[in-house]
Amino acid sequence: MPQIELHSAERRELRAQAHHLNPVVMVGGDGLTPAVRKEIEAALDAHGLIKIRVFSDDRAARELMYQELAAELNAAPIQHIGKLLVLWRPQPEKLKTPDEDRMPGPRDVKVLKYSKRGGQRPEIKQLRVLGNQRLTPGGQVKRAKKPRPISIKKRQAP
Questions:
Q1: Are strands 84-88 and 107-113 parallel, antiparallel or unpaired?
Q2: Same domain for 131 and 67?
Q3: Which of 1, 9, 12 is nearest to 86 (CA)?
Q4: Does 51 share its domain with 117?
Q5: Strand 49-54 relative to strand 133-135: parallel, antiparallel, unpaired?
Q6: What is the CATH number of the domain that holds 53?
Q7: What pLDDT digit, counting tens, does each position of 123-141 carry?
Q8: What is the largest CA-CA distance in the chain?
Q9: Model confidence over 72-92: pLDDT tens digits?
Q10: How far apart are CA 77 and CA 55, in angstroms?
Q11: What is the Cα–Cα distance from 70 to 92, expressed in whole angstroms?
Q12: What is the value of pTM for the model shown?
């Protein structure tokens, strides 16, 4: 697999995003074992941009490990500072099956009830609105409106 090439501006942006990340994978004294490689592969699939901490004092070995991981896992090497390695690989698209007849889940809503007298604070009510319900402008919970049927002419239009 060819290694991903990035422009310096893209690499700089990814470095800025990686600054706040914590290391996801730690490479111990045994080095790059198959289990560590598998974990790095899973982390790249899940997050795309990851930090790896290497507990080795040999800088040349860390640099070799960095280049080897980037080439093997088809990832772009972003940064190598001290014992931290940053790799990036675009995340694969997740397929979601759309469920047409499914309604949204419940949500909690705060409703303000204003007093008829002007100087008082509004009363705050916490309501749970289910997926098959709606909230009216007056603060009442009602059944959701059914979608209107599409006319025959609109269904047949190209």
A1: unpaired
A2: no
A3: 12
A4: no
A5: unpaired
A6: 3.30.110.60
A7: 888 888 887 888 888 788 8
A8: 76
A9: 999 999 999 999 999 999 987
A10: 19
A11: 17
A12: 0.59
